[in-house]
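Example protein
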Amino acid sequence: MNLSIFAQAGNAVDPATDDTRVFTFVFVTITFLAYLYIGWRSRVRESGGFYVAGRGVPAIANGAATAADWMSAASFISMAGLISFMGYDGSIYLLGWTGGYVLLALLLAPYLRKFGKYTIPDFVGERYYSETARVVAAIAAIFVSVTYVAGQMRGVGIVFSRFLEVPIWEGVVVGMIIVGFFAILGGMKGITWTQVVQYGVLIFAFLIPAVALSRMLTGHSIPQIGFTASDITTKLNQLQTDLGFAEYTQPFTGKSKLDVFCITFALMVGTAGLPHVIVRFYTTSNVKAARWSAVWALFFIAILYTTAPALASFARYNLLHSIEGKTVAEVDDLAWVQSWRQTGLLIYADKNGDGKITFAPGKAFLAGADNKPDVNQPNSGNENEVYADRDIIVLATPEVASLAPWVIALVATGGLAAALSTAAGLLLVISSSIAHDLYFHFIDPKAPESRRVLVGRLTILLGICVAGWFGVHPPGFVAQVVAFAFGLAASSFFPIILLGIFDKRTNRTGAVCGMISGLLFTAVYILGNYSVKIFGTTEPLMGRWCFDISAEGIGAVGCLINFVVTFTVSRITPPPPESVQRLVEGVRIPAGPARIESHFDESDAWAENP
């Protein structure tokens, strides 16, 4: 949602603003040069290096790369912002994403690594002895990845728009060029080692302001202790109720229990079905390394995810204190307010004419003709006079707290690292789905290594262009868009992967029917509920008719539909061939052959290599 500027900035000038811009430019330049250097040094010419980094990534490095790949702009930029605005209900993102990774690491990753393929469509195609299943899986992977990457490019645009003061579309273009360079040259090898560096950047950038705010507001240097052992939540609850909001820690204030459960479940199983995360476990040398990389990744992820709730509460408390009850002139004089006001992501107006700016429940402004908040259309009877985009909370918090300019610049650099690391992984999934799973298998099976890598690079370039367009015209907040991608992954991949590993009776007919039905149901429901933002309709084409479940949570229902259809159809149609059933049993055996080598004959039937 690229908001236009609804109000002109005031005349407030802060020397720290220039310092922040200089530090941001320096930090971004240094990190981008590092990414470019790694991409150049990691350039590859063979498909094994391009798609799975030659299967030689050490466990701890793969854990860091997995964490960076998984902790996207949604985790760094948007999650704490959503928790900050939603309070207790925002924990659905925290629980869903973290729980999903545990599910993936313990239940799926080792078995998929033992199967030993390049991509999820590879696994689906061979496990279900069907090129049709491979095509459906490849299309689903592209669909999920394009949706997910839209949120990443929006995050890139927001950071550049604020801290380097360029239009969002220019920031997106710069991000496209950088990620394209190391992704196109190095493929998975270049992406992996770049992501190791990006993890260090993003986690350092996330922790520094959290520690500073914790010391400032609670007296504790460790944010987790400051959040749980101090009275900050009590103070925040009181401040919320004084302003007419529900208590920050009060549950189910904006969503029903069923919707909260469905969103959490969709995010959890969606995480376990994300193709760009799963492919990371193919880059290790063996199953043991895959298990250890999962452990390391969980440790690296936990550092940020246990800090996010603390940062969210600190940010909410600081934001309310910074603006609430101040006169218009006093708010105009706040340098951080004017900086974000110029981006259009922070809007305020004295609607009731009392000379003060007031936070209150409800929307601050009605949407204009372009579905963006319009300061010229105040809601009658609604006293909320501030609109703050959720995606600015983490990025703006250091400025609100008057932290040093280098800290503000570091947070911006971390946001870019989080967005670019995930975007790179997603672009490789799009590339592998088109080049490896579609082009190589159906158009030119005898293509030499050089041509396969060339096609992979060209499809990454195509994916970057599509991602850039969605970055400029996204259908929602970063975390919201990402939640849609998780719903699509939950409804398409998770049931098929789980049944493919643990139920040898599941066959290709059931898998194809299950993937199509789950994905179509979820996609249609999301598009229908968000047609106003996606298609520009005056009213949503479809309401929340399914038990009032939101579009973010409908993936849980799609997942259930996929399970039921796959299981039922598999039971009423012929079982898989014996060789496939032996393959499934072999994948689950702790020791022994990694897999049974296989190929497809012209009739799309399973056969063993002689």
In short: The longest helix spans residues 168-218. The two ends are 56 Å apart (CA to CA). The beta strands are 346-348, 365-367, 373-378, 386-388, 598-600, 606-608.
